[in-house]
Amino acid sequence: MSEPATMSVDTSKALPGATPARGPRWYTGRDAVMIYILIVFLLYAMITIPRFASPVTTGFLILDVIPTLLIAMPMTLIIITGEIDLSVASIAGLSSATLGMMWAGGSNIWLSMAVALVVGLLAGIFNGVLIAFVGLPSLAVTIGTLALFRGLALVVIGDNAVANFPKEITALASSKLGATGIPIMLIPVLVVVVIFGLILHQTAFGRGLYAMGYSKDAAHFVGINVGLSKFWLYLASGVVAAAAGIFWTLRYTSARSDNASGLELTVIAAVLLGGVSIFGGKGSIPGVLAGVLLIGSLNYALRLGRVSDVVLVSLTGLLLIASVIAPSISASITRWRHERRLRRQLSAPAEPSVTG
Amino acid sequence: MSAPAIGTLNNSPKQGGKSASAWLKLRELPVTVALVVLVVVTAVINPLFLSPQGMKDLLLNATIMMLLAAGQTMVIVTRNIDLSVGSILGLVAFGTGSIFAANPNMPIVLVVLIGMVFGAVLGSLNGLLTVWAKVPSLVITLGTLYVFRGLNNAWAGPKQHFAGDRPQAFGNLSVNTVLGMPIITLVAVIVVIILAIFMIGSRPGRDLYAIGSDPEAAKLFGINVSRRVFTAFLINGALAGLAGVLYASRFNAVGATTGSGLELDVVAAAVVGGVAIFGGSGTVIGATIGAILLNTITSSLTALRVDKFWQQAIVGVLIITAILIDRLASLRHAKNLREKEGRNV
Amino acid sequence: MFTQRISTTRRIGSLTASLAIAALALTACAGSDAGTTPSAGESGGSAKTDATITFIPKQLNNPYTDVVLGGGKEGATAAGFATANVVGPLEASASSQVSFINAETQAGTNAIVIAANDPDAVCSALGEARTAGAKIVAFDSDTNPECRDVFISQVVAKDVALIQTKLISEQIGGKGEIAILSATANATNQNEWIKFMEEELASNPDYKDIKLVAKVYGDDDDAKSFQEAQGLMQAHPNLKGIISPTTVGIASTARYLSTSEYKGKVALTGLGLPNEMRSFVKDGTVTEFALWDPAQLGEVAAYAAKALVDGTITGATGDKFTAGALGERTVEDGGLVIVGPPTVFNKDNIDEYDF
């Protein structure tokens, strides 16, 4: 709670100094640290884990992280504004169920996908209206819609699983670009990532989101339409989550009501690990990208090493805790050093001053 | 001097007389009405619902969730949240199974105490990290949710402890009744009442509301925010521990996955019971009734033979309705305050 | 100036802290890596020509699965596999097994033995594994038949259904309402048994007075099965008996019955583990229930996998292989291999079994 306060004081004091003139300092930021850790980990895994360094890894790993990566994009923006969306995995499940029922009911596959996306859009609008216009707390609303949308998925498809999707479509979901091992699906996903990156980092809208995360009132006073901005974010979150649900369905060739359940926590963990502050106002798309990939590759490396998922579960938790308390630890170390230095400096000239 | 000020801060339900309008302002009212309607409607259609066995089942089903929701309320009131309760429950439940497996003659009271202490230790870890690192508890407890579950998996592995391994007397706690109430439910009710009195009637309890309403103001008031928040997490952990022991009494198997996924249900129960997610208002009793309501819905739908697929959707609608009602109530409250102040001027 | 230095130090501090975490992650990873390598051979050593086998159960840390895997690992060593591994998800969800199959494909495992959580979700991943040369044995719960070489079935599906209808009929005196409390709604094996049970109840004149009034699903979750059992009693006051063809379901239902007024009044049978059911058989909640020997299931699966890897069998109908001490097994229509007949447990014989 006091952490962002000190940080903001930090930046404001640094501004009059020479820092901006010396160029960007992105390479020491929290998100940059994440990217370094990712690189170090990947190098380590390539050297020590047999078979990790191969195009096959790239393919499987990317396919595994696509749903998380997709949903993490709107989630980053939402968390930067100081809100949260816990209903994303349920929206993905609802879209999966819708796709399955439409297809089983004899609809064209493209039409089915379109309807699934529209369902996600509606779900996003529902969240958005309640949070942005009615003004309800997003945490509570999306806990409610987490149950509601998953419940609707059950109502739509029940206990059934729909599996007989057209082969050429399901093959597309997991096919690779020649021998590179890179899944074709990565291309549209990257487009989504770039779009969200540009929106957040290059537009006035994106800067407005940061402002909202610092202070809603301040953002309001400088002329940002806080409500409308939030509404758009939840709408986007709904559509992207539905797209992730469609990808999930086609990759696993199985439309079920429980698809992607629990994914919301993985996504949030990845986003926070990527340096986005849960208080809002801080974070970046490259950092989140690194966070998602770190969890994904850690996951894959452990499986390749046949390490039990137990380790993975605990490690995810530890990383999450460590990623948020690391600034506090280093801050307290700095404070301690600073105080010690102060004390030493004070005590050294103190003696002459007493005698004088 | 400070006591009345805290009163206005926390918007506590025990204010004012028992006039009709005061009753209407009670946050527990909507959830209680919903519960009564639900039970009456179900019982009219299926009389078996309120048979002695039916009542007993209803109470037993709600017991664990009552404890968890009551503890969670304490934490939420301070503007925090504890998502790790399901994992704490799982660890303690498995621990209980292990204790009895190793030493079947251990006195039950001692086992309950050990369970609560174990839970309290885990809960205080959450509290410590939250308070010391000044990091939102949402993230910390999301982390400990994973860590505690990982520990449980590592400890239990494929091992499960079954009801048959535990002493008959321990299992009977969830079979025998006193005053028509199963013993474990009675325990839960007593604990909830004590907690409710603590929250409304004691200085530290009221401090929690003050902290949730306005942490800065609470600090200015001289409340030791860190210590109070830490205590809330600790007590919540102890209650989750107690719930874990009772879980082992009631259900057959306790193992690596016991209690997983409970966290969101608990938060949902508190929200339905009128606890505001951003702190400062809501009561333990309300959350407890919320827990009973959510569990009763499950049982009612089955008793009414309603398609169970609707169940989760209904829970979702309830949560959103509860937040909406809460919002309306606070809007009206603000309006009233404005009018009153206007008149005073 | 001063602030700037502090902020740099802080960043370096947090960098150090974060690196420490990463280091922790790596040590944990490396440490466990060594720990899970079985004693049979050195992984990453020279044993490249030796065959490897990996079991992927529906989920880890499930007592039934544990017994099956125990038999499987023993069988694998006996059949001549150099290394036998067990990997799997902690949650039995449809998609959770796929990344494990992928990792095994990449590891070049010769035989993958899998109990599928969803018959279709694992298919394309298994397809890639087969393209890479792995043999696929499904056991316990089948995949889509085109995605595996053979399926090791615990028992003849129809037999296991018939024995349960017979037991419940005996226990309720041949007439009255009964219900089924199953695992998940799309569990392949349970659904097949239920289908046979329904057919048998409809066609066999001995069962004409028995009426199946409900099918509910406890999702193989202890608390959920418990509540489903409770709901059955309320929704169907005339219920005489429950069949629960899943080990988690039968134990939870037994726990509910034994702690309620229905104990001894409502009959319960199905498939259960003797160790879990012992106290309920002794206190009279349950008279008789059935199961095969789960360890044998794992064992036969291991031998079948070895025969496939060696090329002794291809999975074609009529292929024969020897499953160690368990004797010869034949691949039947649809690539099916049957382990053996089910055993019926009651208070007289339950103490002879320990699984």
From TrEMBL, chain A:
Listed transmembrane segments: 33-53, 60-80, 86-104, 111-133, 139-157, 177-200, 231-250, 262-279, 285-302, 309-333
Highest taxon listed in the record's lineage: Bacteria
CDD domains xrefs: TM_PBP1_transp_AraH_like
Compartment list: Cell membrane
Statement: the UniProt record of this protein carries the keyword Membrane: yes
Name of the protein in question: Autoinducer 2 import system permease protein LsrD
Bilayer topology term: Multi-pass membrane protein
Major subcellular location class: membrane
Automatic annotation (TrEMBL), chain B:
Location(s), subcellular: Cell membrane
Lineage: superkingdom: Bacteria
InterPro entries, A to Z: ABC_transp_permease
CDD domains for the chain: TM_PBP1_transp_AraH_like
Annotated transmembrane regions: 29-51, 58-77, 83-101, 108-129, 135-152, 173-200, 229-248, 269-297, 309-329
UniProt keywords, alphabetically: Cell inner membrane, Cell membrane, Membrane, Transmembrane, Transmembrane helix, Transport
The protein's name: Autoinducer 2 import system permease protein LsrC
Broad class of the protein's primary localization: membrane
Pfam family, one: BPD_transp_2
Membrane topology, as annotated: Multi-pass membrane protein
Description of how the protein assembles with itself and partners: The complex is composed of two ATP-binding proteins (LsrA), two transmembrane proteins (LsrC and LsrD) and a solute-binding protein (LsrB).
Function: Part of the ABC transporter complex LsrABCD involved in autoinducer 2 (AI-2) import. Probably responsible for the translocation of the substrate across the membrane.
Tagged with keyword NAD: no
